[in-house]
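Q: How do we represent a protein-ligand complex in a form that can be generated token by token?
A: Start from the inputs.
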Amino acid sequence: MRRGKFITFEGPEGSGKSTHIRLLADFLRGHGVDVKTTREPGGTALGESIRGLLQHNHSGEAPVSRAEVLLFLASRAQHVESFIRPALAQGCWVLCDRFEDSTFAYQGYGRGFDLGELRSVNIFATDGLCPDLTVLLDVDTETGRDRLKQRHSLNASAPDRIERECDEFHLRLREGFLEIAHNDPQRFIVVSTNRAASEVAVEIRDAVCARMKEALDAC
Ligand code: Z5A
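Then emit the structure tokens for the protein with Z5A bound:
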């Protein structure tokens, strides 16, 4: 059995990751690819519980920044070993909403943790699994925030703990994502989402087809 492909979607809040994972999954399924979509934190029962701990202050005690890093990584370790690796081994393509680059952008560029240390603990959590391709959806902070504001007002929901961080935090992590992508052009596709979602979807499809041509032809 040919191993599947592991594609991650990254970007600031409201950049359109969920929307474009859904659209790319539909497109790939139409081309005979067996696709599984998932997200971080989450993707397993344990990971979804950790997601709740990270986003909402149920106990009245927010995690300190080091605990926050370790909770994201605990969710990732469980996700990689019990969901992502088995799916790839069965030949599925896994499309994941956020992965290691979110840790580097949010906890590294955002919170200020040393990137080298974060890389080391991340390798421990993933046991060395790396994405085959990463789609970075870039959006300016104001547009991303406006989109989420609209969604919260439609759903009568409230911003979570990380969404409530100050603008400087969100500006730093956006710059962080762009720098990480700039330093690894073989793995990244960078797509601006400051325009109609339909245009963005076409650009993502074309780029994924170009990078994954051989694997797609084999499906
Ligand atoms: N986090 C971390 O700190 N460290 C880590 O290691 C990991 C994560 C793994 C997860 O939140 C949080 O965890 C996240 C980072 C942190 N915190 N923040 N902030 P999440 O998964 O709940 O939220 P998110 O990842 O930020 O996603 P999101 O807020 O749901 O946004 P999205 O998935 O990128 O966007 P969307 O849902 O597809 O679109 C948002 C809205 O915009 C929606 O109404 C769309 O219809 C609309 N949209 C999308 N594209 C367009 C365009 N092109 N034009 C107009 N409107 C659009």
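The first strand starts at residue 6 and ends at 10. The first helix runs from residue 17 to 30.
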